[in-house]
């Protein structure tokens, strides 16, 4: 009987003991997991809980390194100095908040809250903080050599990001002179260049946080010069001025030069070449050369120079000796003329002897 009484009392004590051991703290509210925050903003993580007994101690831990951020126990709340500039901590018996100030991407990771009651029963809650930021160092590149390309050709525009945003890049957009051209999920566009001119291209990479523009790439869409002749005066009479003129289409506006084909010299650096008082030695081919950054175009102009007969001379056959009366003598008259002389006149002592188209006189 006595022993039975003792055992009943022991069982009661045991019951009470086990009841207290089973009193486990539990969270009634936890931050959403993951908790998203834009870089630069503050974020407050809030837990509410039922300590189910008496609060003993609690700890905030930065999981990636295992470092304690803050703890509270009978001696009060302590925020670890390494974190004290960056966090605000409130720990109460039924609620705790951890505020991360001016969050940056190195704050991305898991945060753990641990609470324990005086019966040494504890519970933890881990929350991932997802620090969102825009793509950075966005670059636009093309395969245009020297940032020049021809009208009608195709260019490969590639938008790349140095630092992918968090979350990763969603879309890329291409702009030409601030006008939207198109969206791409790969950041690549093959585009035909449909108008000539100077254009500023840029691309933009965006994610849910925002969009970042690349620096601008300036591309000259050019057209190779095509010479459209205006004037190639030929023939020209010796002593007259010869004015050669050419024009060309093309973009950028072409530069001109008239080149002397026989010497290779540039006779004029403009559209116009004036050969003043042209001489017979200046007849020949002149090349109009129109060039721009894209290429060049040429046309030739062949100038013929007419001049009057000159340095005429007469030869006799047999040459320069005394001939017998009645025998034949032939005279040949030669001259330099362009076009060649077509009539020769033979005079003897001031009176016309005969005219000949061949320049030969048999007498
Ligand atoms: C973050 O919190 C600090 C301290 O409370 C405050 O000064 C600052 O303005 C807050 N920043 C933002 C972006 O809310
Ligand atoms: C992010 O914040 C931490 C803590 O304040 C600081 O040590 C680190 O330099 C910051 N990083 C950047 C990239 O700003
Ligand atoms: C640039 O790349 C595109 C696509 O591959 C190609 O069609 C085009 O000919 C290239 N242009 C130049 C100038 O290399
Ligand atoms: C466009 O350029 C990018 C980067 O150089 C390259 O990876 C891609 O293959 C090119 N696309 C075409 C169609 O040539
Ligand atoms: C990016 O470029 C586009 C097109 O020029 C412009 O509308 C937009 O304002 C720019 N965004 C930023 C952040 O500069
Ligand atoms: C595009 O922009 C460039 C530079 O800002 C300017 O020189 C050019 O005239 C513009 N082109 C057109 C077609 O508007
Ligand atoms: C990102 O680009 C897509 C496609 O153009 C657009 O629908 C979306 O609104 C943009 N988002 C932001 C944040 O700019
Ligand atoms: C030829 O050009 C020269 C120099 O420009 C000028 O003095 C002369 O009058 C011109 N002659 C003719 C026939 O036009
Ligand atoms: C030369 O050609 C250009 C382009 O076709 C044209 O605009 C210009 O009027 C021409 N100039 C002359 C003087 O013919
Ligand atoms: C072109 O070159 C030839 C040969 O050197 C020369 O005789 C001629 O005078 C040149 N033409 C001009 C316009 O100078
Ligand atoms: C003119 O263009 C041709 C190809 O079209 C090139 O071989 C040549 O070097 C160019 N000449 C000059 C003077 O630019
Ligand atoms: C022709 O004869 C004359 C007189 O004898 C002489 O002066 C002249 O040099 C001769 N001419 C030639 C081409 O032999």
UniProtKB/TrEMBL annotation:
It is found in: Membrane. Residues 1-23 form the signal peptide. Residues 25-128, 225-304, 309-363 form the Ig-like domain. Keywords: Disulfide bond, Glycoprotein, Immunoglobulin domain, Membrane, Signal. Its main location: membrane. The lineage of its organism: Eukaryota, Metazoa, Cnidaria, Anthozoa, Hexacorallia. SMART domains: IG, IGc2. It holds the Pfam family Ig_3. InterPro entries: Cell_adhesion_signaling, Ig-like_dom, Ig-like_dom_sf, Ig-like_fold, Ig_sub, Ig_sub2. It is a single-pass type I membrane protein. The keyword Transmembrane helix does not apply. This is Ig-like domain-containing protein. It comes from Porites lobata. It comes from the Eukaryota.
